[in-house]
Amino acid sequence: MISVNHVSKRYNKRDLVVKDVSFSVGKGTIFGLLGPNGAGKTTLMQMISTLLMPTTGIISICGLDTQASAQEIRKRIGFLTTEIKLDPLSTPNQLYSFFSELYDIPKEEVEARKQASFARFGIGPFADKRIVELSTGMKQKVSIVISLIHEPEVIIFDEPTNGLDILTSRQVMDYLLELRQKGCCVLLSTHIFSVAEQLCDEIAILVDGKIVEQGSAQALTEKTASRNFEEAFFKLYSEYHREG
Amino acid sequence: MRRSLKALIRKTFGKNHTMKSQASVITFLACVAFVFVVLCYFFSFIDMYIHRNDGPDPSLASNIVVVNAPDSWKEYAEERDYYFWLGIEDKETDAVFDVFTFSKWMKEYDAFMVLVFPKDFDEKVLVKKVEERPEILTFISTDHLEYEEARENFLDNELGSGYYNYLSNRLGVNLPSGEQPLIYTEAIESEKQSGMVRDRISRMVAPLLFFVSIMYTCMLIAMNAIAGEKERGTFASILMTPMSRWTIVLGNFLGVALHALIPSVICMIVFFPTSIGGFLGVLALSLSMIALMAAITIMISCMSQSIISAQTAFLPIFMIVLVACVTCMQPSTANAINKFFPIYGHFFGIGDCLMNTAEFLPVMVCVLTSFLLAGICLLVSKKLLTTEMFTVSVESKSDKEIRKAMERAKKQEKDYVSRARANVFGYRPVKRKSLGGFLIGHAALPLALLSVFQLISMIPAVISYMKTEESVRFLRMFRELSSLSAVEDAVSESASLFSEFMANHWFIFFMGLGYWCIIGIYMLIVKLLERNRLATMGFASAKELAGKDTAANTWTPNPSFLRGKGKALWRNYLRGMLLGFILISSVYVLLFVTGQVSFKGYALTSDNVGLFFLYLLMWIPQGATEEIMMRGYMMPRVAGRFGIPAGIIFSSLCFSLLHAGNAGFSVLALINLALIAALFACIALRQGHIYTVCAMHTVWNFCQGNLYGLEVSGNPQSATIFSSAPTKMSKDILTGGKFGPEGGLCVTIVIVIAFIVLFATGRKRKGNASAVSSEASAEA
Fold first, then answer.
1. Strand, coil or helix: B646
2. Which among B8, B240, B407 is the top mutation candidate for probing chain A, defined by the most A β-carbons within 10 Å of its own β-carbon?
3. Chain A residues whose beta carbon lies within 8 Å of the beta carbon of residue B395
4. Which residues pair with B725 in a beta bridge?
5. Which of A14, A21, B545, B712 is surrounded by the fewest CB atoms within 10 Å?
6. What would the pLDDT profile of A24-34 be if each residue is shown by its tens digit?
């Protein structure tokens, strides 16, 4: 559903941030981008979610080109990054109704959908509190609910469990697995190995804007002859970063 | 689209929306101040409306106000029965040019003319000197032009021939036409009152209120709408929705416009247009104005990443529009072509529509042009929202900070800030300034401060001068400037006027106060703007004075009379007083011995004892101020950037040029003042503080002006203990002429000798000085 073909990105005539990246993600899979800070994960995800335009290369989602039909694509993707924040003085209820209008969700369905998703994450008791008053975990849950308000087929999550406690991140991970079951296509970036290892069907390791290796966690571990996935990552990283 | 559009509009009206828009406090205060001024203006009109007169009553309008009427006139008027058929009002005043009072009287008594006699008119007529002919001033009101004939008749026959004949008979003198008093006629502008109030309010106050309220509301809402969302990081989630960019722009635009509609509707209710055409005109104009302003603010909001940057970007536009409004108030701007342009057209259009004098075409053109411009702005905004630079923060913050820090580190290697050229009074530059700004700032600050405070303290002196008769002569001199020699006279008269002020108690008092204020301002600059210790402007603390030798400038001379045991503040000050006294006394002795001045003895009278003490009090802050400005503040700062020699030269030249406007300034004076300044600078550098030079400066000026009675840099003195006068054989090149001794060679000689003494005695202990300095640097 997501296909990225030879994509590069350059900001203001400086060095390439993303260098000739290609991969594709099919239906019902979770694809993980793993890499250190500054590897270009966020830029890549912003390009996939139509916020940025690739300097070269083509990204298509559900067969639509991100440059030509951005508006169509935005109806089908849910994008969540740590950069996107919620209006601190609004309540989850207000935000839900505001975004349901922006996404043009049929009025009759709004209430039922809201009840369902609030119940799923236990937001109900906090629905009329302001965002500033909520805990970090609750904020993240509200963000997830808001960004998936239109039930998209393609979900792009940038560091979904960053800064969350074990319980909450467990909840989020369970939810992602549930989405996979439903047949959604999930692209997530992370630098937490356990998350990548547990969740992702396929992992691409991004170092200095390049994908250096791609495959399942197990395959990668075996390929580098490491004891576990974490060691495999370090081996790959030190190998490729030195070259760069 | 319609649904999302509505949601966006509704969002701008959200309960929390306006509350959290952090309008910068200064913008808000500026607006409040502006509205306050407008309200004052408005209320002054109301006041005028209440106290106005409905124009002159034709049956009474032949009234005349006569000021300072001499006895002869009173008798003449009685004889001619003027009191019966003219309605004469007698008044007394010293201020014979006070047109404001005269026009007030004219309004009060429905008079069409004011006759102003000089005081003691009768006596003056008897003097019969051609150049001292008394003058009768007549002021006529432009409101009463219909009385022109009556006035001419009165001036020619009644006042002219009739009164003069009576006068010559009564006084028993023959007044040929060349010796008769002169009559000057002066027209006083005063506008007709009837119908003015509504007109003024409609044409000035109403459009202004429209403009200010619309612009302020647009700014408040629009800056929060997009730039605010960006700042809070919530904008990306809106961008990620399937709305088109156009919907986002339009939604926010409509929200802003609806907000701006509220104050303009209130304005419309307050200044209600009296006709349907006027109403539609005002409506169209305010709508187009709202559209234009909302579009501009939305565009700026799209460009900015934070509320503050958006407001800063909009502030110049706000100011320019306000300035345009003010220019619209000038009658000359109200020409036909300007009415077609937006802003101008809106201003005039609203006024015209309220007064029902609007024309259809200009209003229509103006409205359509603004809608067009608004459309263009919206298109640009839409384009901006598809540009990555304005939608996504492309660099993560840490990257940006690292890059900036690296750039800064690179820059600092060649930056003077990290490697000051000199360290005077412990001053270290902390901020980088451009060269031009740095030099101009240092040269302009003293000049600006001095001229402002001098002007302020001149006000009472000028007011009291304006009440004297001489002021009339003085002002007339300017009116009659016809030849070059007249201009020269006028200039020299003005200079002598200043010397007259120098004898004015109030002037001296306020000057003293002003100097204290300047000292305070400099302290605030150092403390608040630079965040430096006061010691960096030469005000070393008691601790620093008592401690080690703060001045570590190896190359400056180090004579014993500048070191000594006296580390306390007052000792340094006393030492300065003594040194200053020695210097100026040597100058005086030199002048006296060479026979340039003669000693005239004790001159202080009981009249000017008060003035003398005022002077005494004034010289203390005066000397200190000039030292603080030049040696204390400017020298360390210039030296820090360009080295000590540059600091001395620049500050000395500035000091010297500061006196360039004084009477009798010459090249020699320039050199002398610079030399004195350099001497003071060397002493201050040597000592590490400026207390001594402050005292030297004060005592120098005091002794010169109020002890020996010489001119102080071109300013003659009036309260002096002894008086001196140049002898017949005196030469300006030695005495300095009008400028005082600083303009002559005697001072040059004394200062050069002082330099020699300073360096000669200082050099002997050079080893000592370098030992001290190396010690100091080791401690540092």
1. helix
2. B240
3. 11
4. B598
5. A14
6. 998 889 999 88
